[in-house]
Design brief:
11 helices
Length: 257
Amino acid sequence: MTFLDIFILSLIEGLTEFLPVSSTGHLIIASHALNIESSFTTQFNVIIQFGAILAVLALYWKKFLPIDYKFYLKIGIGFLPSAIIGLLVKDHIDQILSSITIVAWALLIGGAVLIIIDRKLPETSAHPKLHIQDLNYKSCLLIGLFQCLAFIPGVSRSAATIIGGLLLNMDKRQATEFSFFLALPTLAGATVLKTVKLYPTIEQSQILSLALGLALSFVFAILAIRSFVSLVSRQNGVFQWFGVYRIILGSFILIVL
């Protein structure tokens, strides 16, 4: 991998990890377009997610200190479905991670869902919008089940969890931020597993590539998180524009293929 390859993949990871557009799908598309598809590229794309994890911790560290056991328990319960299901279907996930056709269809379908959700769910309702502290454990589990849809490359973990929160009548900003917090154990688990698997084969040059990728994805993720939260907080109908983008990108890929 050249420096340009590392920069492009890290840029994509940092900017798309927490947006409802599928970072995995974009990384697969980019790897295909750059003609750098390999076992190391696949592992690289997963490992640099740790940079995105650090970005959430850097921006939201006050949410985690002092320790609120109920808050941590909610995140743990939300993470539980992906931990269990992920271990059961891990081999099948690895087999479809390079399928750009699956990514294209997932982008299309997910885009349509985002548009429908944004237009159909009212901004106001008879019941007050829920905040993270209002979630019960059953709601956290349901959002965690939505997150499992992201095992399909192109679905978007962020979109799945945000949609789950919105369907439970969560405030849009709160649903967005809960998706960030739920990403921490999810991405950390995937990163650790891939790192352990890759460690025996890592060469010195690859260590430098990974370190650079982590640093770049950290910086780009901070920029993306701040911008996304600002958009969600200030404007209505934000998610449908991400849906339109997904449909355009998915259609373009299918036409090219």
